[in-house]
Specification:
By secondary structure, the protein is mostly helical. It has one domain. Helices cover 85% and strands 0% of the residues. Helix 1 packs antiparallel against helix 2 and helix 1 packs across helix 3. The longest helix has 74 residues.
């Protein structure tokens, strides 16, 4: 009888130990799965944020190029300046084409026109009101890019 009682105690203890270990294993696995999901979510969010910042940086760089383009146009010498303008425009288009392989010259022209309009607007805001042209006076020089995109 004593042997049977010790065997029963040992069996209960081993069963309890196995149940506890199984519970700890399942809990640790669920916790690891939860942390893995969190890491995947945070990785996706950080990748999306990096992409958004890349677009913002590309837009800022394009704006700086538009300002430089405007200055080149304003200061261009008649003959040498025209050649330089053509060269720099082609160079800018090739750089834009690397970032937008599916883009066309029309899309590039629309993007340049949009950014240049923003820059001109900023430059004109710095001018005194009495020499600043009206916004409608410059509007006729801006191409209608939304029409091209829809068509």
């Amino acid at each position: 009888m004593k042997f049977f009682l010790r065997l029963l105690k040992s069996t209960v203890f081993v069963t309890w130990l196995l149940a506890t270990m199984l519970t700890v294993t399942v809990t640790a696995s669920l916790w690891a799965l939860h942390l893995t999901t969190q890491v995947a979510t945070l990785t996706a969010v950080s990748a999306a944020t990096a992409l958004a910042h890349r677009k913002d940086i590309a837009r800022a760089v394009a704006k700086v190029k538009a300002k430089a383009r405007l200055r080149r146009l304003l200061m261009a010498a008649p003959f040498v300046g025209l050649g330089a303008i053509v060269y720099f425009e082609e160079q800018d288009f090739r750089e834009w084409k690397l970032q937008n392989p599916e883009g066309t010259r029309e899309e590039y022209s629309c993007e340049v026109a949009e950014l240049t309009a923003e820059v001109i607007d900023e430059v004109l805001q710095d001018l005194p009101p009495r020499v600043r042209p009206s916004p409608n006076a410059l509007q006729k020089f801006v191409p209608d890019c939304e029409l091209q995109v829809i068509l």
